[in-house]
Amino acid sequence: MQIRPRAVNDETSERGGVSPRALGRKPSWKEPDGLRRPARKPLALRCVRYRSVKTTSLFVVAFLITGLGTNTSCWAEPPRSLIEIKVGKEQFSGRIVAADDRDCWVFQRDGRMSRVRMDDVDDCSEVDPRFRPFPSLELRDQLKTEFGRDFEVKATSHYIVVARNESAERYAKLFEQVYRQFHSYFVPRGFRMEEPEFPLVAVVFPDQASFTKYCRAEGANPKPGVVGFYLPVSNRVALYDRTTSGRTRDDDTNDTVIHEATHQVAFNTGVHSRIGQSPQWVVEGLATLFESDGIRAKQSGGSSLDRINPERFEWFQTYRRQRRVPASLESFVRNDSAFQRAALDAYSEAWALTFYLAESRSAELAAYLRSIAARDPLKPYTAAERLQDFRAAFGADLTLIESGFLRFHDRLAK
């Protein structure tokens, strides 16, 4: 979710939730909620009956393995085969990416993610021992069919962009540029990035009405003023082009692309987990960090002042002087309530804390992000665990960390 500090009521953009939420399309299918879940029983072995394509006979396959969910630091990954699942009259193909004794999470070949209730599965077939995402060319053809002749579809090395008014190529270049800038900034600083498994899809609508209609069809309900979304369930970015109506500058639309593309890239390169919970300050901190032109610049070196996000920095300075509670870093790390109370203040602190860590403790920040991404994605991320992981990465004394964090910004303000 992106909320920009130009004005409290300014048009904003929003990511589709820190963790995927249940969309409730049909009773037998639910999308991942990533929220609080009841405690799971230790899972020894879960078997599902499936029909072999080769033999057409029914037998039992253990596609979930011993210990899933019992080891908090190293959870076992299910096989990477292409599975066909039947739930009532529905038939669904993909690979299982995580599972417990109640649900399994499946990535479809286009990158869409679904949660399937184990008790609702009627039949499960291994279609192919190897799961293969749709090739870019095939996915492009599907998108042309989905959006029709009024839209263009352009592809780059990592992106497929759907847009109107002959703007698809410009947007495709911009999204691809963000991907390459993200890679160029984070990899040298110790951030481990994987190559995206799926082509990254972005859809640019010509107006707010069509954008809102699409988001609602995807189970998201954009708030007034929201102009962009990263939708974790479909794994797509959706936004609308305000420049076509003369309501904004190109730079404002580019800012939306940069913020939402940063979310999408981070969730598709292993920096964040698409299924597991991530602290909201971590997710939004990286996206707001990357809004800065100085962060994305090719030149290395220079001072921290060259890389600040001026809008977030100014807002944080005002927030700190007027509203921020002293010694509040612990509560900010423990939970996401600050984003519900005062979103712009929380966004500014997410940027400020992430910028401090990226500039002065980048190795520890990279290790911290790896530890969060490596968690068992099906296990709730409690406030105590969030605090424990933060202390393990940056030190046990939060008073000392907060003092260093604020002094860093004092120096920038001089």
Give a brief description.
By secondary structure, the protein is α+β, with helices and mostly antiparallel strands.
Tell me the number of strands. Answer: 13
Straight-line N-to-C gap? 31 Å
Order of adjacent strands in the largest pleated sheet: 1-7-6-5-4-8
Q: Class by helix and strand content?
A: alpha+beta
**What gyration radius follows from the Cα positions, in whole Å?**
22 Å
Relative helix content: 25-40%
Order of helices and strands: EEEEEEEEHEEHEHEEHHHHHHHHHH
Main traits of this protein?
414 residues, alpha+beta, SH3 type barrels, Glutaredoxin, 3 domains, 6-stranded antiparallel β-sheet
Walk me through this protein's architecture.
By secondary structure, this protein is of the alpha+beta class. It has 3 domains: about 40-130, SH3 type barrels, CATH 2.30.30; about 135-270, Glutaredoxin, CATH 3.40.30.160; about 280-414, no CATH class. The protein contains 13 helices and 13 strands. The protein has helices at about 135-145, 170-185, 210-215, 250-270, 280-290, 295, 310-320, 330-335, 335-340, 345-360, 360-375, 385-395, 400-414; strands spanning about 30, 50, 60, 80-85, 90-100, 105, 115, 125-130, 150-155, 160-165, 200-205, 230, 235-240. The strands form 3 sheets. A 6-stranded antiparallel β-sheet has the order 1-7-6-5-4-8, with no helix packed on it. Helix 4 packs across helix 5 (about 280-290), helix 5 packs across helix 10 (about 345-360) and helix 10 packs across helix 11 (about 360-375).
